[in-house]
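Dear U.,

Please find below the material for section 3 of the report. The protein was modelled together with pyridoxal-5'-phosphate; I have listed the sequence and SMILES used, followed by the predicted complex structure.
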Amino acid sequence: MKDLTRCVVTPRIKTDGFDPLGVGVHRASTIVFENAEAYARRGERGHDGYSYGLYGTPTTRTLEEKLTRLEQGIRTFLLPSGQAANSFAMLPFVKAGDKILIADTAYPPVRDFANLDLGRLGIETAFYDPVDLGDLERQIDERTKIVWCESPGSTTMEIQDLPQIAAIAHRRGALVGCDNTWATPMNYKPLTLGADIVTEALTKYISGHSDVLLGSLTIRDEALIVPIRTVLGRFGIGVSADDASLVLRGFETLGVRLKHAASGADSLIDWIAKHPLVEQVLYPSLPDFPGHAIWKRDFLGSSGVFSVTFKPAAVPHVAAALDVLKTFAIGASWGGTRSLMAPMPVKSYRTATAWQGEDLVLRISVGLEDPEDLANDVQAFFDEVASRVVTQAGRDPA
Ligand SMILES: *Cc1c(COP(=O)(O)O)cnc(C)c1O
């Protein structure tokens, strides 16, 4: 062999006896075959075989398998983001003339995807009250192909009665999809409660370090494998082994990170809930939260993301007061090591229900910092809001 060829052809080295705990990063587009016959028959390798990088590598399959086991499903597909997982949980199952029903409190880009993109393809989207089974019963019909859930709801945390919703949907022959990003499969297992498809933004808690975007879609019925796999292939959706490897690494500490974040949230909430400028803390593990009983029945634990609504006098000052934060960062994509706060508008994302509170909700995600630093920051933030309320009151003509 000439040197120029030696540069190109990589020698195979022995791997037996090499048994690391970490998962190898297998980057690949091309997969080679031992002979022309094997190449010709590559289509027969099935869902678990390897034929082309887009359809999976040992790295991505390892992450898929880990998710499948935790979700108690039969197969997982990886996608480039959590939002991609949501879109491709719907797309394979709808055609012009069909209808889908989406919980009014779903992640806002899901609303836009359904209204704009599915709408353009002639699929009708309707939104239902996430906590009113009667509303779902009234709106579901024989054209409905998917009932979409997210529990707790984005920002406002409404808890859905998934077993009941699934019973209603299945009576009409509709599939049930559920975005499980808040709870992760550690704390909620939608496939065991009647959902057919569960999605995760691995971007959030599961990867856990705010440095990668990835999503997953797990199913419990063999019949869904082919529709999803073939649509993903035709759309050219695959993920990199490097990204999957980052998620696999973060995954190992998911359990301890979630527990830590939930207990950090609990101690901040004890203090925040008593503050005179606070209207309500939205967090399902609070005994007086409206969906608490269902949460207790169906969930295995809490995460570190909750929301706060304010008394009307405080609302105009919340955003500006965030500037005093030292430990919390201001940002949207929660579930990482750093604690975050983000002011979220709600009303423009509700059409089936009317949000009764003020339009600004402060979403707080507790990370892994020392609880005392977080408590000091929260105190400084509320002091700043209070001082702005007082100054404003002094300026208002009596
Ligand atoms: C962040 C988020 C997503 C989207 O995840 P990306 O990976 O950022 O696309 C989907 N659903 C919920 C509930 C989320 O919070």
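For the text of the report, you could mention the following: The first strand starts at residue 75 and ends at 79.

Regards,
Y.
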